[in-house]
């Protein structure tokens, strides 16, 4: 049991700190929560958790080893991830001055469709960041034993999902309340441009690292 508990607690602690650090994921969930609905924000949080499972499984099967063995693979992932963040930032920026119809009713058919899109957007934002993949692989390499027990291999993705989904659900719940929503609607153009600019800068920073490796 100790063979599972100790590495699992180490991974969980490191991942909690990583999840709470600001980045594209936080920007996306925060904007979704204040601009759409609480349900959309929670759906985006679930997308973050699903993306975390993807990275957890990839790291368990040797993502870091693959990046080291095939440098072009990492460069390709960085290129695609950076381009996606730039595209997302431009979309947010261009829509900054568009009026927003805010729904206050949860559970309508329209909300279900928006929730699905928010889920996919959250998952796409999570998996588009190769630095997250490297962080996952590095943490796993630091805490996992050379031979990973089956119980630990099954527990790690579940714990990662709970951490990612839990943190971003807190973000969504906090920022979908009346006061933050009202402030967002009042200053929508400026907030969207700031959020879009941050996304573009993060994408450009990621792309600028492609040439330098």
TrEMBL record:
One of the record's GO molecular function terms: amino acid transmembrane transporter activity
Keyword Transmembrane helix attached: yes
Keyword Zinc-finger: no
Membrane topology type: Multi-pass membrane protein
Protein localization: Cell membrane
Main location: membrane
Residue stretches in coiled coil: none
Transmembrane segments: 6-30, 42-66, 72-90, 150-170, 190-208
InterPro entries given in the database record: LeuE-type
Keywords: Cell membrane, Membrane, Transmembrane, Transmembrane helix
Gene Ontology cellular component terms for the protein in this record: plasma membrane
Protein name per UniProt: LysE family translocator
Taxonomic source organism: Variovorax paradoxus
């Amino acid at each position: 049991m100790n063979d599972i508990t100790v590495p699992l607690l180490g991974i969980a602690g490191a991942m909690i700190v990583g999840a709470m650090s600001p980045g594209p994921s936080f920007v996306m969930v925060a904007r979704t929560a204040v601009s759409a609905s609480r349900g959309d924000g929670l759906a985006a949080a679930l997308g973050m958790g699903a993306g975390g499972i993807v990275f957890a499984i990839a790291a368990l099967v040797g993502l870091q080893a693959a990046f080291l063995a095939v440098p072009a693979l990492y460069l390709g992932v960085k290129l695609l991830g950076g381009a996606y963040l730039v595209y997302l930032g431009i979309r947010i920026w261009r829509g900054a001055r568009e009026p927003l119809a805010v729904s206050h009713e949860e559970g309508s058919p329209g909300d279900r469709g928006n929730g699905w899109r928010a889920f996919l957007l959250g998952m796409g934002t999570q998996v588009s960041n190769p630095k997250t993949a490297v962080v996952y692989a590095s943490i796993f390499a630091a805490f996992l034993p050379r031979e990973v027990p089956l119980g630990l291999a099954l527990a790690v993705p579940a714990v990662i999902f709970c951490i990612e989904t839990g943190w971003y659900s807190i973000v969504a719940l906090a920022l979908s309340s009346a006061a933050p929503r009202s402030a967002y609607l009042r200053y929508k153009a400026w907030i969207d441009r700031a959020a879009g600019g941050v996304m573009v800068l993060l994408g450009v920073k990621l792309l600028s690292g492609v040439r330098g490796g």
